[in-house]
Amino acid sequence: MAQKEWIDKDYYGVLGVPSSAGADEIKKAYRKIARDNHPDSHPGDAAAEERFKAASEAYSVIGDKDKRAEYDELKAMAASGTGGFGGSFGDYGGYRGSSRGFSGFTGDGESFDIGDLFGGMFGSGGGQGTRTTRRSRGADVETEITLDFREATKGVTVPIRLTSPAPCTVCHGSGARPGTSVTRCTTCGGDGIISENRGAFGFSRPCPDCNGTGTRIEDPCTACGGSGRVTRTRTITVRVPAGVVDGQKVRLAGQGEAGERGRAAGDLFVTVHVRPDKLFTRSGDDLKVTVPVSFTELALGDTITVPTLDSKVRVRVPAGTADGTTLRVRGRGVTKRNGNSGDLLVTVRVTVPRHLDEGAASALRRYAEEEKRSGFDPRANWAGN
User: Does the annotation place 100 within a ligand binding site?
Assistant: First the structure.
């Protein structure tokens, strides 16, 4: 969408947030509207689809730091009566000509260059500027997926269904009816901008005949109305790299909304959510697991079998290991992007039997007597003893 069209749009109102809202608040509002009105959840509901499109359009502007700054500046100028497009010279108050087009002065007599103010909208001040790539590019799209813990740590490829503007399959994105072509706008010579001189002053504005695109379509495609894109549902394969963490985004360049009339598409950002695992947790690239052991395994030492993401490993528990000790197994954790792996951190916890048969109980009583006779006191040097 061209910036000149922003003047009639209330993107904050569309998302239901104040103009002072932070980036996280804007994103949260957009996601809620998109989730509640997604075409996949409301097939055939034209009103929901329009709300979905409006929210996507709003977020593509005020969800982008640079675009939001331009939008806020443009709306502020419109509110104060200093930002008209194509109005008379009187609309601009005290401005005077400059080599770049327009310059102005403040009430304190300090001068400033209007080219800096309008540069983001018209290219370069009052000259024959060119449209910026950001204006032509399609909007970015965000979606979410949820993976199991082991899928996220090992990496996985998943298909997702996405409903968004995509290139028209009839005109292949050109916007012109098959058999015809897009022509250069004769009004602006293909620049998308026209310049006007009024006495000693001059200014530039988007060409009204081509809406600043620099091209004309005499015979538009009937399938897309000349925009070169249509809203459709498609399946995209997303490769999630190994080691992704909860909340991390995966970027797919060029898989967002298609640009108008064959221009570059935006990007797709996939936010990954990870379900907790019953056994494992993570600490960076290290994998953590807690293993139940018996008192005798810790006291006498033993070798225990411990699960990993792929198989099982045998871990030696030294004699006299304290309850809660963490043992490290090198290279059996989460695979890093460089191909190396973190470690497996094994924490041992004593499990006490609730019931003992008479033989085991008798043996344990004999052990307790021998333990006292040896002088062992588990509470020695504890609590002032």
Answer: no
